[in-house]
Amino acid sequence: MKSATILLAALVGYVQATTYAQFCDDHACTENCGISVSTDNPGCLNESGRNSIKFHDDNIQEVNLVFSPTPNCPCQTECINVVACGEGVCGGKVSCMDLAGHHPAESFRFVGGGSTSCSANNC
Question: What is the DSSP letter of 92?
Fold first, then answer.
């Protein structure tokens, strides 16, 4: 019983930080922003023509963003470490990342935070 109580306390104490992102058409995260996606999901996002990413939620976290030059994330041309608050206002308020200056991409995916999570570019 004692070990079950300790396990339950450990599980209750664990909270996954979730940050959500929306890809937008303009460079200021205000025009035609898409649906919110969790940065915890490493799935491919076909977002051709997007110029900024709006990050939001109370649990702003560090994440890596992988750029692919064509749809369906077949390879990587760039991987950058993103600390969402570093691009805007922290504390649960919206932050915006302008994609100008990065490799042109038609698809993206988020991978775990930290510089060691980026693989070598392979396109």
Answer: S
- Sheet containing 62-68: order of strands: 45-46, 107-111, 62-68, 78-83
In this predicted model, what pLDDT tens digit does every residue of 61-119 receive, in sequence order? Answer: 778 899 999 999 999 999 988 865 544 544 544 588 899 999 999 999 999 876 667 88
Q: Is 31 left (phi over 0), alpha (psi -120 to 50) or beta?
A: beta
pTM for the complete prediction? 0.77
Give whole-number Cα distances, 78 to 14, 17, 42, 47, 88, in Å.
32, 25, 15, 15, 22
Domains assigned to the chain: 17-115 (2.60.20)
Q: Of all residues in the chain, what percent carry a pLDDT higher than 70?
A: 71
Phi, psi values for residue 14, rounded to 5°: -85, 120
Neighbour-count burial for 74-95, b at 16+ CB within 10 Å, e otherwise:
eebbbbeebebbebbeeeeeeb
